[in-house]
Specification:
Blueprint (H helix, E strand, L loop, with lengths): L2 E5 L4 H12 L3 E6 L10 E4 L5 H8 L6 E4 L5 H11 L6 E6 L47 H6 L1 H15 L4 E6 L1 E3 L9 H11 L2 E4 L8 E3 H13 L4 E5 L7 H12 L4 E4 L18 H6 L6 H14 L1
Parallel strand pairs: 1-2, 1-4, 2-3, 4-5, 5-6, 6-10, 7-9, 8-11
Helix pairs in contact: 1-7, 2-3, 3-5, 6-8
Length: about 300
C-alpha cells in the first residue's frame, strides 16, 4: 500500500485513475479547488495549485510515496509543485501529451533556444523532446488564458523541463496520445464530432492527403498512469495503443455502425480533429520495453464508437 496524491483528476480518465488506485488498496488524497469531491474513502485536500501558500497549507505535514499530477500546464505551476512537494514525495508523475512533438508549435517564441526536432515520417521516440535540455521561460505570460491556450504544447514541454531539472524528485512524464472511449465522459467531444456528422450526413472537413495518428482508450491511459506510479524508471514515456488510424478509417468505422456513408469536404484550413497533413504518431517501444503491454487500437475502437453513439 502506498500514499498517493493526485492533483486534479476530477474528469474523464482522471476519475477512473483515482478509483483504481483506491480499489488497489492505496491511501489516496486528491488536491483540487473544491468544486468536485473525490469518491468516498479518498482524502480531499482543497487548494488552488496556482497558490503556493494555499497548496502548502493543504498538504501540511503529509508525505507521499507518489504524486500524480493530472493538471500541470505551465512551468510556473511546475515550479510551485516542485517546491511544495520537494522532500515530501518519493516520485512525481506528470500527465503530458503527444502535442509536445507537434512540429507546428516548435517554432514558437516560447521555445527560443531549444534544439528543435524536425518532422519525421515514422513514430517518434521520447528522445525527440528532451526535458533535460529544454529551455524554460517562466517570465512569459502563462497566467493569461489566451496565451496559455495558444501555447499549450510549449507549456507542457517547459513543465516537464522544470520537474526533470529543478525538482530533485524522481520524475516521469507520461506523454498521452488522443484518448477515446467512455461515451458521455469523453468531454473533449472529438469523437462525437465525427459521430454526429456521419449520423446527420453532414460534411467532414479533412486535408487532401491525410496521415495516421495514434490513440489510446480511457481505461488504458488510467492503467499506464497507475503502472508509472508504481514503477522505478524515470524520464518521459509515450502512451499509445498499437496501430495508427487515419481519419477516413475512423469515419468508415462509424459509418459501418450507423449505416450511412461519410461525406468529406477537402478543407485543410478548417480540418476536423484527427485530420493531419503531417506525421502525428509516436512510438510506444520504450513503454513496452519497461514492462507495459499496450493494447491494439482495433481491439477497442469499435466499442468506443458504440459508446459515443449510445451517449
Amino acid at each position: 500500500m502506498s500514499e498517493i496524491c493526485v492533483i486534479g483528476g476530477s474528469r474523464y480518465f482522471g476519475k477512473r485513475l483515482i478509483r483504481q488506485l483506491y480499489d488497489a488498496g492505496h491511501q489516496v488524497s486528491v488536491v483540487n479547488r473544491g468544486s468536485t469531491a473525490p469518491p468516498p474513502g479518498v482524502t480531499h485536500l482543497v487548494a488552488d495549485r496556482n497558490d503556493e501558500a494555499a497548496l502548502a497549507t493543504a498538504i501540511g505535514s503529509r508525505t507521499f510515496d507518489v504524486v500524480l499530477d493530472q493538471v500541470c500546464y505551465t512551468p510556473v505551476q511546475a515550479a510551485i509543485a516542485a517546491r511544495v512537494f520537494g522532500g515530501r514525495a518519493g516520485r512525481y508523475v506528470m500527465t503530458s501529451t503527444i502535442e509536445v512533438y507537434d512540429p507546428a508549435t516548435l517554432t514558437e517564441p516560447a521555445a527560443a533556444g531549444a534544439v528543435r526536432p524536425t518532422a519525421v515520417d515514422a513514430p517518434v521516440p521520447e528522445t525527440m523532446v528532451d526535458p533535460l535540455s529544454w529551455p524554460v521561460r517562466s517570465e512569459l505570460p502563462w497566467t493569461d488564458e489566451n496565451f496559455l491556450a495558444a501555447h499549450y504544447a510549449e507549456g507542457k514541454r517547459q513543465s516537464e523541463a522544470v520537474f526533470a531539472r529543478e525538482s530533485g524528485l524522481p520524475f516521469v512524464s507520461v506523454r498521452s496520445t488522443h484518448v477515446l472511449g467512455g461515451g458521455a465522459e469523453e468531454f473533449t467531444g472529438r469523437l462525437d464530432h465525427y459521430v454526429q456528422r456521419v449520423l446527420k450526413g453532414e460534411e467532414i472537413a479533412v486535408h487532401a492527403e491525410t496521415v495516421p495518428t495514434v490513440f489510446t482508450h480511457h481505461r488504458e491511459i488510467a492503467d499506464v498512469l497507475q503502472w508509472a506510479a508504481g514503477a522505478e524508471f524515470t524520464g518521459p514515456v509515450n502512451a499509445c495503443s498499437h496501430g495508427p488510424v487515419e481519419v477516413r478509417e475512423l469515419c468508415e468505422l462509424i459509418a459501418g455502425q450507423v449505416g450511412r456513408e461519410p461525406v468529406y469536404r477537402i478543407d485543410g484550413a478548417n480540418a476536423s480533429p484527427f485530420s493531419y497533413d503531417r506525421h502525428y504518431a509516436m512510438s510506444n517501444a520504450r513503454g513496452e520495453e519497461l514492462g507495459f503491454s499496450f493494447s491494439h487500437t482495433a481491439d477497442w475502437l469499435p466499442e468506443a464508437v458504440a459508446e459515443a453513439l449510445a451517449a
